[in-house]
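User: Can you predict the 3D structure for this chain?
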Amino acid sequence: MPNSPSAKSAKAAKAAAKLSAPRKRGRQGQLPKKNRQIPWLAIGAAVVIIALIGALAYNLVPKYRERAELDKYTPSAQQKDPSDGIAGVVKKEYPAGLHIGGNQRVAYDQSPPFGGPHDQSWATCTGVVYTKPIRVENAVHSLEHGAVWITYNPDKVGADGIQTLKAKVEGKPYTMMSPFPGQDSAVALQSWGHQLKLDSPDDKRVGQFITALRLNSYTYPEVGADCSTIVFDTDNPPPFDPTPPGPDAVPMDGKGLTPDPSEVGGLPGGGLPGGGLPGGGLPGGGLPGGGLPGVPGVPALPGAPGIPAPTQPAPGAGQ
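Assistant: Here is the predicted structure, written as structure tokens:
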């Protein structure tokens, strides 16, 4: 009978079985989930940020590492000449303040030269990259002012190498750069009494040399002298002369020359650290001997306070 007690019990048992049965699960026993939207915008932004961090790290970490390495070559009272720790640096002692005229030459003992008699006008060394070879007698005077002069053999250094060197010089005070035809090395670096010859512009010693000797007041004679001048034409500089200097050239000892009184008699060790006052000069290119920086032949002002008056006008006052 459909409505018999046994039939009702069977229906109740079936209903209870349905309620107690587990829900149907999806794949791998997971409950069905609603479709979720992937946050592509957030993922894209995260990728861009990670890429930027990676690029910054790639570019900045080597520079910080290089800076830390170069700090070892920064001069100090405890380490007056850090170039002593640079392999290959040649050092020589030269007398200072020995000037020649614009039509004279010097029988230099080194090529390129890095000390000795020189022209009374210096080559502008305010981070200038000369595209033409320049007269060495003017360049040596720049070294006396604390500059670093980088030269390269145009037959041994290509366009990429020139750009590498240019980045070390352009716009950086007390540096200059020029080609030097016939140079026996690809690259040479000169400061007063110091030279380093290298086979490659990429050599890390380029930066070490500049750090150790540019404006190192312990290693050059005329601390405080300027590197700019209105006399030297940077667009059309006095040309480099590759021929031998000849028998009339001024010898390296400067025999027959009178030292410029404004450039001698400085303090031991190259003057005061950071730009001293040798010969009465002012830091940053002041008025040693009372002359005007960059203007050869302007005499001193006798009796000016703190400025020694030379007994005769110095032909290169302030150089």
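The CA atoms of residues 41 and 100 lie 73 Å apart. Strands lie at 90-91, 99-100, 118-119, 126-129, 148-152, 175-179, 187-191, 194-198.
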